[in-house]
């Protein structure tokens, strides 16, 4: 088995995605906490590894990778079972389409640094933070729900009949939606899928409250 070390923060959506993928692949890994609230991601020792100063960073057999989707696709190439992307080019594009709605549209504008900048621009008005998070997460999930309907996704997972990268991206966003109180009561497809995924071992093992570390 490879030696795998994940530098993450327990409540980071991007880190959460990678933990799910590692558990799905049945890969043992060590976690090292990078405390975002204490600016651990800005420490010189960490930015030397990851110049962006973001989590996660994955070390695997002497190779270092950043960016959650790049990490997950690399793991999927190395360990193809269970596959996290379909073989068919169009189906693979659909799964990436769903994944990127979350990872490239919702996530960046709800990033801790971005939201803090918005608070600062609003004169330090902290009350704007939960409103921003609720609205932007809700808007993104409504779009995701629309794509699920468009793709005919009426089963237990986001696309087709197997867990994919799209499911890995969805569940951390559900965690954030619930944390900030974003309304998802009318998102029938998302709620059905989330209920199923929340009972799967890999997703349960990766869930933030189940991470065996002290929380901040």
UniProtKB/TrEMBL annotation:
Q: Which residues form the GST N-terminal domain?
A: 2-83
Tell me the ranges covered by the GST C-terminal domain, including all copies. 88-216
* GO cellular component terms attached to this protein's record: cytoplasm
GO MF, one term, reads:
maleylacetoacetate isomerase activity
Family matches, as Pfam families = GST_N_3
Q: Which UniProt keywords apply?
A: Isomerase
Q: Describe the family membership recorded for this protein in Swiss-Prot or TrEMBL.
A: Belongs to the GST superfamily. Zeta family.
The alphabetized list of GO BP terms reads:
glutathione metabolic process; L-phenylalanine catabolic process
Q: What is the lineage of its organism?
A: Bacteria, Pseudomonadati, Pseudomonadota, Alphaproteobacteria, Hyphomicrobiales
This chain belongs to which protein, by name? Maleylacetoacetate isomerase
Organism, by scientific name, is Pseudovibrio exalbescens
Q: Output the InterPro entries linked to this UniProt entry.
A: Glutathione-S-Trfase_C-like (IPR010987), Glutathione-S-Trfase_C_sf (IPR036282), Glutathione_S-Trfase (IPR040079), Glutathione_S-Trfase_N (IPR004045), GST_Zeta (IPR005955), GST_Zeta_C (IPR034330), GST_Zeta_N (IPR034333), Thioredoxin-like_sf (IPR036249)
**Which Gene3D superfamilies would you find in this protein's record?**
1.20.1050.10, Glutaredoxin
